[in-house]
């Protein structure tokens, strides 16, 4: 038997990655380096539940409007936290 897990991924990965890239273009985030943005993505993803899917459209099809709103709100909260956390930590001098 052959196995194919190539399509399996965490639903939030694409959402977080796209939003980190979008926000990195905002003036308040211009000082973020590529490494800092990767840290933001990791922090955000670690604060979200894992939702593994094969196809994003399948997940969206079965969500209610309320569930979609919860996802959007959660994404906003974790990204605000992650950007602030990384910015604060990078501003501290190294010892």
Care to give the gist of this entry?
The chain is mainly alpha-helical and 95 residues long.
How does the SSE layout of this entry go?
Layout: E1 9-10, H1 11-24, H2 34-46, E2 52-53, H3 56-62, H4 65-91
Antiparallel strand pairs: 1-2
Helix pairs in contact: 1-2, 2-4
Quickly list its features.
95 residues; mainly alpha; two-stranded antiparallel sheet; 4 helices; 2 strands; 64% helix; globular
Helix and strand string, N-terminal first?
EHHEHH
Class by alpha and beta content: mainly alpha
Question: Which of globular, elongated, flat, extended, rod-shaped describes the shape?
Answer: globular
Low-confidence stretches: none
Total number of domains: 1
Give the proportion of residues in helices. Answer: 55-70%
Sheet with the most strands?
2 strands, antiparallel
Per DSSP E runs of 2 or more residues, the count of β-strands stands at 2
Distance between the termini: 54 Å
Number of helices: 4
Whole-angstrom Rg: 16 Å
How are strands sequenced across the largest beta sheet? Answer: 1-2
């Amino acid at each position: 038997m052959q196995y194919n897990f190539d399509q399996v991924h965490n639903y939030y990965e694409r959402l977080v990655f796209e939003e980190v890239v979008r926000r990195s273009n905002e003036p308040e985030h211009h000082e973020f380096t590529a490494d800092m943005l990767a840290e933001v993505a990791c922090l955000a993803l670690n604060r979200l539940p894992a939702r593994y899917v094969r196809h994003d459209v399948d997940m969206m099809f079965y969500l209610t409007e309320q569930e979609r709103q919860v996802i959007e709100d959660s994404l906003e909260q974790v990204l605000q936290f992650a950007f602030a956390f990384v910015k604060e930590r990078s501003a501290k001098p190294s010892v």
